[in-house]
Design the sequence.
């Protein structure tokens, strides 16, 4: 039981099946990395960051960064309960909260995880959108923790696109899946509201540019 919510009898089974399915599917993907070698070496050397990625493209990235102890922000929804169980099984820790429910609680948990020396990850347009619009929480988190924001994207031509608010993308078995980073951005401390908006736009532009660049490289349909 988590946060005092009653879990159904099938919940542990659903978590186990979900984690196993992600591992199985991920093992079939042919992962290719574009312009990631330098920052990957820095991460291996102990540098930490905030991985920022669009909600629709997170599935391959969840698989690619499993087992690293990254702290992920997950919503307080029922779906969030299931996602929390799955990602914890593959090596993440979860901070619970979103822009609509438990936002400050989730923010505080992420700060605590950053203080423990963990990298963080969040989808700044999740959990409900608007699609590919960065919310100000990412700016405030980066400003507060001092961690650089790393725009991350995944792309694949061989993908199922779901009819969800974000057009969630699931690469098919044996698909070639590309991953890329944009330049890391260092958000200053002590921003006023006007500066938060400037940085929000800057981060949105960086994440959009990296995603569009990778989509072209992968040959995704427009």
Sequence:
């Amino acid at each position: 039981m988590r946060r005092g919510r009653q879990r159904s009898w099938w919940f542990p089974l659903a978590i186990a099946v979900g984690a196993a399915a992600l591992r199985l599917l991920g093992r079939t993907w042919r992962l290719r990395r574009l312009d990631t070698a330098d920052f990957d070496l820095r991460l291996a050397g102990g540098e930490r960051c905030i991985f920022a990625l669009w909600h629709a493209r997170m599935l391959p990235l969840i698989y690619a960064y499993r087992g690293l102890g990254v702290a992920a922000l997950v919503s307080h929804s029922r779906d969030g309960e299931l996602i929390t169980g799955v990602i914890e099984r593959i090596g993440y820790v979860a901070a619970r909260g979103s822009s609509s429910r438990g936002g400050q609680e989730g923010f505080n948990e992420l700060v605590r995880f950053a203080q423990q020396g963990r990298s963080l990850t969040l989808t700044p347009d999740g959990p409900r959108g608007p699609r590919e619009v960065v919310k100000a929480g990412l700016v405030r988190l980066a400003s507060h923790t001092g961690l650089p924001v790393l725009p991350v994207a995944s792309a694949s031509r061989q993908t199922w696109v779901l009819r969800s608010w974000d057009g969630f993308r699931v690469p098919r078995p044996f698909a070639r899946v590309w991953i890329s980073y944009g330049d890391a951005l260092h958000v200053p401390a002590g921003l006023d509201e006007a500066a938060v908006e400037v940085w929000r736009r800057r981060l949105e532009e960086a994440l959009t540019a990296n995603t569009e660049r990778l989509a072209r490289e992968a040959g995704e349909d427009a």
